[in-house]
Fold:
Amino acid sequence: MAKPDIRKIIHIDMDAFYASVEQRDFPEYRGKPVIVGGSPEGRGVVAAASYEVRKYGVHSAMPAAKAVRLCPHAIFVKPRFEVYHKVSDQIREIFFEFTDLVEPLSLDEAYLDVTENHINLPSATLIAKEIRKRIKEKTRLTASAGVAHNKFLAKVASDLDKPDGLAVILPEDAHDFLEKLEIGEFHGIGDATESKMKSLGIYTGQDLKEWSEIDLVNEFGKTGRYYYRIVRGIDNRQVKTHRIRKSIGKERTFSEDVDDLGWINNFLRELSEKISEIMQDKNAAGKTVTLKVRYDDFETITRSTSFSHYIDDAEDIAHTAISLLEETKVGERKVRLLGITLSNLNLNEKGHFKQLEIPFE
Structure:
């Protein structure tokens, strides 16, 4: 059967997922300002924020110290990732009841292409309603959904009526909708870009649409092409069921800031061993090692180096990471997070790891 020209895309986004799971499992948290991750002492970073605490301006990825200042009476909860993974698996099972074209973005959100679906229902809106209903029945959690003819618009739509909402952007309404949309509501335009655009007189989609592609590229680099397309509702990306893994890494936020170089070197060796085990288990290797450092004032930097050959050995990874450490101020400045990532992996065109060839003399 030939596919129709207009696709039917749903973006499902769980509402304050980690925090909602905690409020579901612990009744004493319900209706309270709950923060998952970080600590009341101001250490760490907010992993998730309930809607009750978002009213104070707290959001995910915010330093816990700032969250405490904004909402001193917030309840801090340690993450239970094993629980979140189990709930996420339940939700994905529901998705696959409707379509095989599911592209998970994280534990709590995914794109679904329901142009052709398992229940032969022509309405993506009705499918989105049914998915949200089943999620609530199975997990006792709410999800918001956006329905549109491409991924960008579906993503924007899912944010329009949160929490527990459903928004639909019809193809014939897309241009008017985008012209009236405030520039900060465009997915992919962050706070810094929003500020720059406003300084240039760009406050809405209509303002952005008046700029030529070449002028946007001159002002924003190659991302300008993206802005030129999205304001016109152009997004031809397909829902991909298998996302290519571009890197393998590990990182850890410490309970106390660290400046002992001997301890740090040993930690990087331990981290390298863990990464090496993953690489060898997956029959994978990489050419680029990246060291991530977050200082005690939350400044985060990365240092990378690439090889002409693939590596997967723990000693090679550790030696490289420790060498990169010399390009930082670790030791002079305390650190609260360290991480190592191995990228530029040996992938084939389908995103699977290639069999490594071992030369024999």
Residues 132 and 255 are 38 Å apart (CA to CA). DSSP finds 13 helices and twelve strands in the chain. The domain at 247-345 is CATH 3.30.1490.100 (Dna Ligase; domain 1). The radius of gyration is 23 Å.
